[in-house]
Amino acid sequence: xxxxxxxxxxxxxxxxxxxxxxxxxxxxxxxxxxxxxxxxxxxxxxxxxxxxxxxxxxxxxxxxxxxxxxxxxxxxxxxxxxxxxxxxxxxxxxxxxxxxxxx
Length: 103
Hints:
Layout: H1 3-14, H2 18-23, H3 26-60, H4 64-72, H5 75-98
Helix pairs in contact: 1-5, 3-4, 3-5
């Protein structure tokens, strides 16, 4: 398997930034890994917060409409976090495919 295919597979399938690290672009790969982790952890936090609202709804006797309204308040954050992750992911794949790296 060629070096280019390995870099694309690492960035596309495993985690964006790994293809850059494999090619020797340590700073670019490190920044991409950091951004990916920020977006993923942010999404996990928002998702868990929404799940907590669902669990609390049963104990507080809220109506489904009230629970949905509370969860929808988090929706813009999820869209931004997912959009940011997708931008970094797409950049990682394209960069891994066409960048020469430091090697």
